Amino acid sequence: MVEKAMGVFWQNGYVATSVSDIVRETGLNTASMYKEFGDKDGLFLETLGYYRGHVIGPRYQILRDNPNMAGVEMFVKNVITGAARTEYRGCLMMNHLAQKHAISPDAAEQVGAFCAEIESLIETALRNAQSDGDIEPDKDPQQLASFVVLCVHGAVLYGRHESKKDEITKFYDMIMGVLRG
Questions:
Q1: CA 118, 119, 123 angle in degrees (round to 5)?
Q2: Residue 161: what pLDDT?
Q3: Domain containing 13: what range?
Q4: Structure confidence by residue, pLDDT tens digits, 116-158
């Protein structure tokens, strides 16, 4: 049920998703939804947690399993390849970062935590890469991590525009060039 609700929020966005949309897609009746989740905000928070654990979690795991340059390369390639797919619909978290003013403070905090966690994982991997000699010693891993997140978020947004999909894969080499160069 949370997975189906996630699909509705992902497709429509929080603001454009009505309780009747949720009821129709999940099969819940309104009373059950309110009893189990409190309200639309409560269900949305559950969907963000589900997304983080089940959808985006494997991307995080790439960096946890490979906290080094190879992990950053795999992570960036995974995001860019995904964003270039025809059926790509964006990242639920990123889609709602732009709607931060319209979601609950708790949901906005989850979205912010998502951004901070991914940047932290990348920074750790880049610090290790620097220790391994894969990144020049004069480069700032924290600044590079912010740059990678900026690029990844941009690719995610580009992936929602059909006319930009062909360009997305070209950015991989540029990102890696900045990191290694």
A1: 120
A2: 85
A3: 1-55
A4: 999 999 999 999 999 999 999 999 999 999 999 999 999 998 8
What total number of domains does the chain contain? 2
Give the residue from 151, 176, 138 showing the smallest Cα distance to 130: 138
- Shared domain check, 82 and 51: no
Q: Are residues 99 and 171 in the same domain?
A: yes
CB 119 within 8 A of CB 149: yes
pTM of the prediction? 0.90
Residues of the chain where predicted confidence (pLDDT) is lower than 70: none
Structure-block tokens of residue 110: 């989850």
Question: Is 165 found in the same domain as 82?
Answer: yes
Give the pLDDT score at 147.
97
Rounded distance between C-alpha atoms, residue 93 and residue 71, angstroms? 22
Q: Are residues 127 and 146 in the same domain?
A: yes
Alpha helices in the chain (DSSP H): 2-12, 19-26, 30-37, 40-50, 57-65, 69-84, 92-97, 105-131, 141-158, 165-168, 171-180
